Amino acid sequence: MEKDGMETIMDILLHLEKGDKRKLKQQAIDLAKSEKSNIKTIGYLDAFFSKYLEFAKTNEEIIKLHEKVDKQIKSNNPKDVPLPTLSGSALLKPNPPSSDLFITKRDVEVQKYEVKPGDSVGAIADAFNVSVDTIKWENNMSTANPVIKPGEILTILPTNGVKHVIKEGETISGLAKKYGVDAESIFEYNEIEIEELIIAGEEIIIPNGIKTAPPTRERQQYLADLNKNDYKKIEVPADFQGSGSGLIWPLPAGHRISQYASRKHMAIDLPCRDCQVTAAGDGIVEQAGWKTGYGNMVMINHGNGLKTLYAHGKELLVNAGDSVAQGQSIMISGSTGRSTGPHLHFEVRVNGALQNPLSFVNP
Predict the structure, then answer these.
(1) Residue 358: its pLDDT value, please?
(2) What is the pTM of this model?
């Protein structure tokens, strides 16, 4: 059953076990949840106990305090504000108790500003003591130098940062990571005491949060390409011997090495744009196509457990299953996959283990 209002709250408060007053708040909230009270009742208990822990000691004082706060909430005084609801404002606990037990709203809130002739985003930001980015993020301004027009209504946050609408399953720690701030600053600024009481649809402010621009269409395609696999592979007989002719330098037009072999990069990188890449030795093309990270790549099986791999190609000139001769063109160098510029990424493998290519070829 779902109950609300003074009847529910008094029923909960007056049936709490005697004991440590500091434990009663969580006990009351747990009881409200078990009775399927709505979020308004639970939020009320959260805020109510912030007062109760300071002032009320007996059941009579609880009743008196509740009646006073309840009367204030139901009043039409514009200085008063109801406790947290599903209205769309952030779920807040009240400010520290004042001597008259009133629950007051923050001194500063989200504001609306009507643009006047001659205004600029920078001038408005200075007037409200927030950053230009804060105004741009909140008002969905995508350009570096946004143009605003007289009569336009801007939303101004009370501090630098980002306003965020809670989605199902989100956590404060996750939001802190997303916007580059510490979680406690979010709790403190929004005066959130119990994270469980925040529900999807609530709005909170991430103080000093940074909203990163969504990736461009080109970047999205690049990221998608990085993670795709679209290559053909054949099974080369395990007893394939190859010619045993040894290996030669795979990039006739370029002999400069931009990155040498290391523990984290057991390969050599040879910078060259649109250059012919040749097979380092006779063999069978075991793999050819697009592979995660490598982009367009070719792997040649030379027999006796020896294989070479050529990556980041702009264009492939062979297919899986082809027989190739030493020095035959197999690829045009490029910058596909995870690459910082046009080059050939060259690997040598022996029985599956990566080797330093310079132990097998010379520039």
Answers:
(1) 97
(2) 0.48
